[in-house]
Design a protein that fits this description.
Elements lengths: L7 E7 L2 E6 L3 H8 L12 H31 L10
Amino acid sequence: MYIHRPVAINITQDETGANYYFDCSPEQVYQYFSRFGQDAFIVYPVDLRDRMIQQIAKAYRMVQRLSRELEGEKENKPGKSSEIEI
């Protein structure tokens, strides 16, 4: 995924993997890396890291809520259904 990817100014390697350093706006970092979910972690700036964590937590809570609602609907439907809903 290279569309709108910020240009790395430095890349280092350690026991946790590759660390990329970018010279761009925090918004550009957020917009690009938010699509990677758990596969990307923003170390600095802290406020941007916290924003990403909050967004992922919000998505997780929404999925959990929808999953519970769907389970409740399945319990109320008689018989088996081959219907697929997306």
